[in-house]
Amino acid sequence: MALLEVEDLRVAFGAATAVDGVSFTVDEGKVVGLVGESGCGKSVTSLAIMGLLPKGRPGKRRKAEPLQVAAAEPVGGALKAAVPQSVPVAGRGRKDGGAEVNGRAAFDGVDLLTLAPSAMRRKRGRDLAMIFQDPLSSLNPVVPIGRQITEVLERHRGLKGDKASKEAANLLDRVGIPDPARRLKEYPHQLSGGMRQRVLIAIAVACKPRLLIADEPTTALDVTIQAQILELLKDLVDSEGTALLMITHDLGVVAGLCDEVNVLYSGRVVESAPVRELFARPTHPYTVGLLGSIPRLDLGIHEPLTPIRGSIADVIRWKDGCAFAPRCDRVAEPCVAGEPALVGAVHAHRCVMAEEIA
Amino acid sequence: MTIAKIEKLDRLVEATATARDAQSGSLVRQSLRRLRRSPMAVTGAVIVGLFVIVAVLGPLLAPYDPTAQTWGREVFLNRAIFPGPRAENWFGLDHLGRDMFSRMIIGARQTLLVGVVATLIGLLAGAVIGGVAAAAGTFGGRWGERVEAVIMRTVDVALAIPMLLLALSVAALLGPSLSTVMIAVGVAQIPIFARLLRGSMLAQAHSDYVLSAIALGVPKGRIVVSHILPNSLGPVIVQATLVLATAIIEAAALSYLGLGNPDPGSAEWGTMLADAQRFLSGAPQLAIYPAVAIIVTALGFTLLGEAMRESLDPRLRRQE
Amino acid sequence: MLRYTVKRLLQLSVALLGLSLLLFAWFKALPGGPENRLLPENATDQQREALRASLGLDDPVWVQYGEFLGRIVRLDFGSSLSSGRPVATELADRLPATIELSLAAMLIAVGVGIPLGYLAAKRRGTWLDFTAVSGSLLGTCIPIFFLAAMLKVVFAQELGLLPTAFRLSAGAQYTDVTGLRVLDGLITGEFDVAWDALLHLVLPAIALASIPLAVIVRITRASVLDVVGEDYVRTADAKGLKPATIRGRHVMRNAMLPIATIIGLLLGSLFAGAVLTESVFAFGGIGSFVYQATTERDYPALMGFILVIAVFYVVINLIVDLSYGFLDPRVRVRK
């Protein structure tokens, strides 16, 4: 049985849908990537699994933001979509107007989405932990980092006082921070960006969770630091047998770290495959497009990159057809003739034209 | 109490500085649109509008001469018994037998006058001081920086004195009169406006469009007058609206302390409220009319000012 | 931290010096000059001369300023024109009452304001939030002396629930320790005195608390709203911490930074509000004294008052600044 089984996860903020039926699994000890542009719903997915989305106030919800849905015009090349201003993204920035979460996210057979808040709080930080994108803003500026580590140890492992401090120092040492005993007394603003991210990782692995979710853990860091942090993550995961759900827009990170990949577009998985398979035979035009947007050394200097046209705001609703259709080079009649299904088992994709293209 | 708003002042400055970097025209329009949708702003605007109309049309609306007394017939000062509301005197008579309704209506004009003049004194003097400081500090070279430092330290000292005390000391110099109240309340606002305008102008001075104007060789004086100054006015207008509320309340407090208009015939809400304190247990209505009028008017200006501030503040906007 | 403190102290002494200059200018500008204020109307020219000489009014201005400063440092503000006693003594006698009243008001404002502001933020958009926000807007718009008078009429005169004036019931025997009657009663074990003093304190303290309460509710609400949206609160949540821990260590500890600043600023303006409140309740503090001094144009008394308040205010500012350093490691600890 898979460690984490996400099934038909849907998240809506008022009338705006951020996640529109995402399904994937994470097996024990595996590293699974969740890839897509910003706004595709990958961060919301992770927050929904962690139960960290702002709770909706039934009946009291604020007016929804304009939904980024454009009417699907008849095909014939004229698949032009209006570009609305706002793209509903993560829970951050939407402080009220809570999220409506539906579907299933079974962790070890227990559905996290229906779990009582107190039971979920006992799981968070112990069984499943999360590493966030911006290490500076994710650490409390007025609390010494030592305390920010020991509070997890205290909460989930019952360690107190000196024992907790000692363990915290061990953890810092383990994530590669020199002179850990002294660092415990320091505040986040005294550390460098890479160090802060290491502290966040130390906090996340403090209770040896079975699943670690990393939401773009290297985006805010310098390139050289990025590599170190990824190395550290890989090392921790390998040695502890922790499963890792890696959320990123960076296919380079995926190639170096992941066992399996799920490509997300407009709140849905469009392609899912083992990492080698995906890079060898990308099937969905969106995946192809993502790969084409990466600068490559093995291509000639005069060969242009092939960026994906338009923006993620140019979409149609999944139930009317393929959300990627407005931006797709190979768009055809069948693409907008109703909901495209996810086909295939090991290497699954959601493109009705896949056969023709192949 | 306005001193407590300093944090807000700085935030206001910050807010408009960032907002101005975007397109200014559309920003003003956006803010206006947001204001029209805000119940706070609409309520405030309606109250302020009514108040201004009454103040302007006052003599036309008042049924009686606000100073005409009906001694001896119905009013017994020594027993503190005054006729209450009735058909011919909607709000009853005061302790000198004057029609309260007429006095309230005429009083609106005096109250508005006190509020506006006091705010203008604070605004203009504060704007000159803050403007000079900012301009000197930005363009005056080394000496200019010193001038700015001296000015701003003095402003900080003045800010350190609670406003009522500042008003008290001014009133002590000038003796009791209506202009004392206006000057006293106005002077007390000077440091606030000075600080606000300086902060606002400095934020503008370091903004990209001013830097590019400097780089293009536009004369410094012209940059200050035609770019920095007009763009710094947003927060000043907001603050002026808020200060109008405070000015009306502070003026009432000074009247209560006996520093207001010594002329017993004059109708001004603060003076009326202060006068009525003597009869509070026997005839509370005499105090309640002017008190409610002051509270509602102050609330109107506060609502309007706060709504304007919020519509300019991107940090608050993000939370909406 | 030491350098920070020293720097603050230096800035404050500059501010105080500037203030003394302002006061000196004010004193010089009094109508008719100081000597006319200090002498009876029918004083002879000889008396006038003598006073001018004794006050050093014929000396150069900077010498006069030096003298002025010297007298201030010695706490010699001259004698009150109405009572004839030294202003410093008058003020010292009345200060405890005002301190007691201000502290009580601040306790109410903080004790009610912070929880209320927190709840309003947490239940944003509910009726509770709406009530708290509109109540606090209203609170800043009520003239304090009117509120005090209404409280007195309703709760003391009409309902008879609480005493109408003074700090203790007539004829009450008390032992003076700190001058704060409630505290004194508790220290000496005279609990009936403490209770009596507390009853006398309730109405004036509530009236005086109205504005700080309103300000604290709003600032707490805004500050908490800012903080709960921060990433580190989400991190705390992701750690599975108990709600109480998140609230205390992660939300409130950060939200307190702006609240602490405001509380300090409010303490200073409370003293000004006390002038109005005390006169309504004949509370016998500095406020009543100043009310009298204002109506009787007792300039030495006014000057002494302004100076005392200003010093108080400046000292409170220092404490706030220092506590800010204590609360916020980013100020205290450099990289």
TrEMBL record, chain A:
It comes from the Bacteria. InterPro entries: AAA+_ATPase, ABC_Ni/Peptide_Import, ABC_transporter-like_ATP-bd, ABC_transporter-like_CS, Oligopep_ABC_C, P-loop_NTPase. One of its GO terms (molecular function) is ATP binding. CDD domains: ABC_NikE_OppD_transporters. Transmembrane segments: none annotated. Gene3D superfamilies: P-loop containing nucleotide triphosphate hydrolases. One of its GO terms (cellular component) is plasma membrane. Keywords: ATP-binding, Cell membrane, Membrane, Nucleotide-binding, Transport. Its main location: membrane. It is found in: Cell membrane. It is a peripheral membrane protein. It holds the Pfam family oligo_HPY. NCBIfam families: oligo_HPY. Belongs to the ABC transporter superfamily. This is Peptide/nickel transport system ATP-binding protein.
UniProtKB/TrEMBL annotation, chain B:
Keywords: Cell membrane, Membrane, Transmembrane, Transmembrane helix, Transport. It is found in: Cell membrane. Residues 108-305 form the ABC transmembrane type-1 domain. It holds the Pfam family BPD_transp_1. GO terms for cellular component: plasma membrane. It is a multi-pass membrane protein. One of its GO terms (biological process) is transmembrane transport. This is Peptide/nickel transport system permease protein. Belongs to the binding-protein-dependent transport system permease family. The chain crosses the membrane at residues 39-62, 112-136, 157-174, 180-197, 236-259, 287-308. The keyword Transferase does not apply. The keyword Cell membrane applies.
UniProtKB/TrEMBL annotation, chain C:
Its main location: membrane. The chain crosses the membrane at residues 101-121, 133-155, 197-217, 257-290, 302-327. It is found in: Cell membrane. One of its GO terms (biological process) is transmembrane transport. Gene3D superfamilies: MetI-like. Keywords: Cell membrane, Membrane, Transmembrane, Transmembrane helix, Transport. It comes from the Bacteria. It is a multi-pass membrane protein. Residues 95-324 form the ABC transmembrane type-1 domain. GO terms for cellular component: plasma membrane. PANTHER family: DIPEPTIDE TRANSPORT SYSTEM PERMEASE PROTEIN DPPB-RELATED. Belongs to the binding-protein-dependent transport system permease family. This is Peptide/nickel transport system permease protein.
